[in-house]
Amino acid sequence: MSMGFKERDARRALRLNNQDIGRAVDFLFEEKAKRKQKREDDIRHKIEIMELKQYGVTPLKKAVNVEKLKELVAIGFEKKLAAEALRRNENDFQKALDDLTNPETNSVIQLDIESRKRKREQRAVNARIEELVSMGFDRSRVVAVVQAGETMEQTMSRLLPEVDPLLAFDANSSGNPASEASNLNPDSVEGPSTADEERDVEMEDELARDIGKADALSDYDIEVTKEGEAIQEYLALLASTDSKEALSSC
């Protein structure tokens, strides 16, 4: 397990090799190499399938034979050209070779390849146009921009409208309280209304009438005579206190 193998794989290798550690280690490395080779073969096979899809199928709906294609490529023919020759001839190696070595037939095959390439490109362009039109862009404008052959990002940047600086300024001004305040006309600022002034005058008159009717002494808790008696009593108390202090000082 210190070699990086899982415990389960190590136990299995020991069982299959009668607990012989050396043979078990060799077995583990062989299995690891086989798994790596299988992954590489699977990747290569997937790539070949993707390439075969590009070449299309024969008139009898068969895929291009990979082994025969490799043989033609090994001879020196261009891969797409060899694949098209095999496709047209139902994977017949000799007929494909004859077509490739015949200048006239070879030229026809090349023209056919270019024609199919243009059709694929046109389908891709049409798909992009429909996608952009579905986003709400004008079809005539989209067609003109897409046919320029630019990338999707460049196409979008050309289709999107440019921002008008004046519109941007208006948008900023409309949401700015300071700008709104600066646009106010001083003459348009309203002061107190005439009705408010009339209500204030009426209220003042009413308060004056209430004050005139009120008794100035009615808010005190005691009567004036009792208040005077209390003051006289307080003054007498102060006088007696002063006389006592004078006698004690003598």
UniProtKB/TrEMBL annotation:
<feature type="domain" description="UBA">
    <location>
        <begin position="1"/>
        <end position="31"/>
    </location>
</feature>
<dbReference type="Pfam" id="PF00627">
    <property type="entry name" value="UBA"/>
</dbReference>
<dbReference type="InterPro" id="IPR039749">
    <property type="entry name" value="NUB1"/>
</dbReference>
<protein>
    <recommendedName>
        <fullName>UBA domain-containing protein</fullName>
    </recommendedName>
</protein>
<dbReference type="InterPro" id="IPR015940">
    <property type="entry name" value="UBA"/>
</dbReference>
<dbReference type="GO" id="GO:2000058">
    <property type="term" value="P:regulation of ubiquitin-dependent protein catabolic process"/>
</dbReference>
<feature type="compositionally biased region" description="Acidic residues">
    <location>
        <begin position="195"/>
        <end position="205"/>
    </location>
</feature>
<feature type="region of interest" description="Disordered">
    <location>
        <begin position="170"/>
        <end position="212"/>
    </location>
</feature>
<feature type="compositionally biased region" description="Polar residues">
    <location>
        <begin position="171"/>
        <end position="186"/>
    </location>
</feature>
<dbReference type="InterPro" id="IPR009060">
    <property type="entry name" value="UBA-like_sf"/>
</dbReference>
<feature type="domain" description="UBA">
    <location>
        <begin position="63"/>
        <end position="103"/>
    </location>
</feature>
